[in-house]
Amino acid sequence: MSGNSAKRGKIFLLAALEMEVKPLLEHFKKKSDSPKLYQAVSHETLWLVCSGVGGRRAESAAEFIAKEKPDFVIGLGYSGGLSPALKKGAFFIPREIGHISGEKIRCQFPFQTLESQSAGTLLSTDTIVQTPDEKAKLHRHADAVDMESFYAAKVFNRNQIPFCAIRIISDDAGESLPFDFSGLLDNEKAIVWGTLRMLLSKPHKLPALIKLGLSSKAISRRLSDFSLDLVAAIQKS
Fold first, then answer.
1. Is the pTM value of this prediction over 0.85?
2. Given 3.40.50.1580, 3.40.50.620, 3.40.50.300, 3.40.50.2300, which CATH number is that of 11-236?
């Protein structure tokens, strides 16, 4: 669907967690909890689904979206930086999305301007990448990492639905996460309560956690603003 214009039809945005796109939700109304489905207040053809973390949940959400036969889907969310050139808060629009197995899927873009900003590879893994050493090893394969995009892209590719990803770097290549969040990814409540429990056992991590929370809030706002501007441009094209 790359080209100079996109037809005005149903558009889906796909994110893992509501907290990643919380400012964006101010412009949507919730339609269901399973899946977490939202419709834009001012654009009835614009929808948002929050899948939950991980490949299985992303694949299930993508299957739901595919049944709605959208014109295209845009994946939104955080990514860890693998390339030292990608600093925290930077946007990353990959040209292709890969898996650690080596399989890759080419992104398709709603218009040429967005495609011209794309570069590199987004890698989806099955576990959180925590440390600079882990990131350095994966940098041989890609520029940034998440846990969902490849699984969604696989579904959309199979159903011939154009899909691209817009990620924002939440932690750069030289940064370690303050906690091991691997066991806390069932839902957003589990993340919050699990983090509080870990903080009780490691109170010296509080400054790093506060810093992470503040930066996450700022980048969520940037991602949401960018997404709204992008959708407005698409609908006017």
1. no
2. 3.40.50.1580
